[in-house]
Every structure is written in structure tokens, then in C-alpha cells.
Amino acid sequence: MPKINKAFINKTHFNGKVKTYFDSELRGFGLRVLAKSMSYILMYRNEYGKQRFLTIAKTTEITPEEAKKIAAEKLLLIKQGQDPAKDKIANRNAMTVSELCDLYWEQGTRHKKSSTLAIDRGRIDRHIKPLIGNRAVKDLRRPDVQQMYYDIVDGKYARRIKTKSRGLARITGGAGSANRVFGLFSAIMTFAVKREIIEKNPCFGLDKIKTAKIREAIPESRMKILGKILKDEFPKHPLEVSALRLIALTGCRKGEILELTWDEVDFDEQTFRFKDTKTGRQNRAFGKGAMLELQRIKELFHDESEKGYVFPSVKTVGCHLDDIAKYLVGLCAEHSEFGKYTPSSENTRFISSGTRSRRRRRKCAMPTRRLPVCSAMLNAA
Questions:
Q1: Which residue among 42, 127, 264, 302 is least packed, with the fewest CB closer than 10 Å?
Q2: pTM over 0.85
Q3: Could you tell me the fold of the domain covering 6-86?
Q4: Cα distance between residue 4 and residue 18, in whole Å
Q5: What does the mean pLDDT of the chain come to?
Q6: Is residue 346 very low, low, confident or very high in pLDDT (cuts 50, 70, 90)?
Q7: Phi and psi at residue 274, in whole multiples of 5°?
Q8: How many other β-carbons are positioned within 10 Å of the β-carbon of residue 135?
């Protein structure tokens, strides 16, 4: 048997047949000659006596001395009962982050609402998969996740994506986006721990950038301005205006109001009997201002379908009014004196103005007095 060194490799050529030369010094270490390349290999038997074949590297990548050193280290592991060739195959077939995300989507999201799933899908496809989707889950470490977090903060994958025929998704960076993506990714890693894919969550103990937790509430003076604006807008957009007023007067979420049906409105007890919210079934009291608004809505709008939506769509029978966020953004653009706000800001304004927090109001205690926001809205309109 020859001694495999640089001189032997230089004089060895492919002669029309794949051939393997074994080293005279290190048992099992050899040189495999192929048509277009030559590779260092290691032939051994595992603890069960099964013959294994391990490719170390090509001759163009490392020297014979380096390859022989690696082979000696592998032989030491084999004596300890390990199987390097089997481990290499397992690493090649190891679950990637992209595959884990797909598994989580199939089995770990059954408790989530459709609106939440739509947001999660975007965070997975537009942030997680492009950044670390090809990484093996079992090899993922805390520094890898920390780097992904900072890449999102820096807007490494900030871009615009066409979604529908006229839709456009703007992917931005920033600490807020990074924190929300990180929260989802941590949930995915926890799912992997429960499925025994990994032993511990690599997201624990990461450094995050703090962001403002409290939304800016709409001042009462501007709520009066909004009331006047909505009064002028009512003849042109009665459905949208009524929905915005009800959000402002109740503090309910946008989706809760748009999907509200008349069988969920209890006029006698002044209570919403929500069948399904972000946190499940709920009874939520509403005040006199909302009561007057609902009575007016019931006289003006009628859902011709069996579903009985409070705000039926004028375009499609059996559907509720579509998203009103764009409508409010347009109002803010037309009326600079009001400012830039969203339906969530109206929700926040109601909560910050009242004597009860949202958690306490959900216990269905009847309001004993009108909140300042109700007075502002009703007096202006």
C-alpha cells in the first residue's frame, strides 16, 4: 500500500475506472480517484460490525496531512461507539427551520384566529424563512437567533412584495417588527421542544430593544373634531362612519365591531354577547352613547342575508363591511387638523378615558356614567 502524500496524489490519475488507494500508515484512510476529482476517504466498521464509508474532503480543499489528522480524530470517535458516517447522513437530512415552520403551521396553530394566522404567515415567509430557513434546527444556537433579530431591526430584508392584483406588502425593519417576529419564532421553538425535536429553546435570554408599549390616545379635543368630521361624512359613507363611531363609543376591537351581528346585541342589558373574540366568548357592557348609536344603526341598515350583520356589506350579500382602516387613513389625510390615527387609537382613547380598565369592563359590570369620549363624540355629532 502506498503512503498517501502530496507526491502520490500528483502522480495519480484516473485510468477509466474508479479506484481507491489505502494509506500504509493509518488504517482505513485512503484516496478515492474519480473521473473529475479525487477525495480523501475513511473506511471503517461501526460498533455493530457494519462497514461504513466516509468522505472527508476533496484533495483540492485540504492537504493530505490535514485529511489524515481528521481521519485519526474520526477513528477515535469510532472507538468510543460513535458513527461519523451515520451522523453525516443525519445532519444532511436534519429538519431545517423552514420545515419546522411548515410543521408548526400544520400542527401548532389550531388555537389561533384566522386574522392572527394571516399575520403569522407573513412573518414566517417574509422574515424567518429568508433569514435562517435553510439552517438545521438542531444546530441553531442563541447567537444565530440574536443575529436574525438584529437583521430584522436593520431592515436587511426590507422590500415591497406584490400580493394581489392591486395589493402591495411593504416589509420594513425596526425594533417593533423584530420583537413581533421574535415572539412568533420563540413560540415555534417552544413547539419544537414539545415535539422533542430540540432539547431547549435557543430564544431564551436574548437581548431585545424596548419599544413603546402604550399607544398614543386620541385627545378629547380631537375626538370632538372627529365627531364633526364624521357628521359631515355621514351622508356619503354612512356605514363606515357608523362603524367608526361605535368603535370610539365602545372601545371594542375593529374586527369585533365589523363582524358584530344583531343576535349578539342585548339592548335590555346593554351588553354585547360576543360569540367569538380574540380571547373567546365574552359579555361586554356598553354605555348610553353606544346604545343610541346602535338604535340609529338598526333603523338605517338592514342585512338581507340570514347572518344579520350590524354592518352589512353593500357589495356582497351575506358579508360584513370590509376593513375601515383605509377609510380612516383617508380621512386623516384630508383633515390635517385631526391628525394621523387608526381604529386602534380610538379603542385606546376609550380605555384611557374611562374609570374601568378593559379587563374590568369585560366582567360585564354596567357603566354608571358616560365616559368623556362618549360626550365628546355625541356633542360634536
A1: 302
A2: no
A3: Double Stranded RNA Binding Domain (3.30.160)
A4: 17
A5: 82
A6: low
A7: -65, 130
A8: 17
Cell 422533542 locates to 196
CATH topology of domain 220-380: hpI Integrase; Chain A (1.10.443)
The topology (CATH level 3) of 97-194 is DNA polymerase; domain 1 (1.10.150)
Three cell numbers at 47? 460498533
The per-residue DSSP string of 49-67 comes to S-EEEEEEEETTTS-HHHH
Q: Among 257-266, 276-285, 371-380, which stretch is predicted with the lowest mean pLDDT?
A: 371-380
**Ordered DSSP codes for 256-304:** HHHT-BGGGEETTTTEEEEEEETTEEEEEE--HHHHHHHHHHHHH----
Question: How does pLDDT run across 234-255, given as a tens digit for each residue?
Answer: 899 899 999 988 988 888 888 8
Q: How far is Cα 64 from Cα 60, in angstroms, rounded to an integer?
A: 10
pLDDT grade for 343, boundaries at 50, 70 and 90: low
Cell of 147: 443575529
For residue 143, what pLDDT is reported? 93
H or E element, residue 246: helix 238-250
What confidence tens digit (pLDDT) does each residue in 67-83 have?
999 999 999 988 888 88
Helix/strand/coil for 171: strand
Q: How many residues does the chain have?
A: 381
**Contact in structure between 255 and 115 (CB atoms under 8 Å):** yes
C-alpha–C-alpha distance, residues 241 and 249, integer Å: 12
